[in-house]
Input
Amino acid sequence: MVEDNLRRILNELPPEVKLVAVSKFHPAEEIMAAYNAGQRRFGENRPQEFAAKAAALPGDIEWHFIGHLQTNKLKMVLPYATIVESIDSKRLLDAVEKWGSERGKVIDALLELHLGAEETKGGFTESEIEEVLSSGSYPHVRFRGLMGMATNTDDMDVVDSDFARIEAFKKSLEERLALPDFTELSIGMSHDWPLAVRHGATIVRVGSAIFGPRSY
Ligand SMILES: *Cc1c(COP(=O)(O)O)cnc(C)c1O
Output
């Protein structure tokens, strides 16, 4: 089933768009089913679960951390993550910079733009992101692009305007700031990834459409 779901999505996804299979709450056996079907890029959102899976599963998996990360949990995530997609506050960013500088490492990261209508969701405003990118204060963080989560709604017009907003912002940053590594736009989940692709997604994060519903 996991294999069929993957194949169906990959058939439709343009080859240059990266698929992150979001495996949170699903056991290692299901990740291995996707792995054995050729999938190598997975996403997790809880530090403890992430660290346990990353330590146990094959070393050629590219792990994307996509959840809220508290600064006291960096040690569970940064040693394993290929990229942290969910840098959602200055506080977290400062802590990641410090972690990298203490170890002489550069961490790949996306900056999360607060996109949805929900107040509760994290993320930066556009002007905060501009400040971060122009500050030059993060030599141990490689900013690879933007991540966003659209408003949680079935109204695709709302989702469309959320995606249009982050797409336009990314374009304007590219035009105004010289950022050679800043190429990624991570938007789109199970129910809206085709729309995200039409808005320039370079990464889509798909969970339930691959692994089925989560039990939580
Ligand atoms: C869970 C999650 C997803 C995947 O959600 P689905 O609707 O299951 O595809 C994508 N992005 C983030 C940040 C998530 O937490």
Residues 22, 24, 45, 66-67, 149, 189-190, 205-209 surround pyridoxal-5'-phosphate (CB under 6 Å).
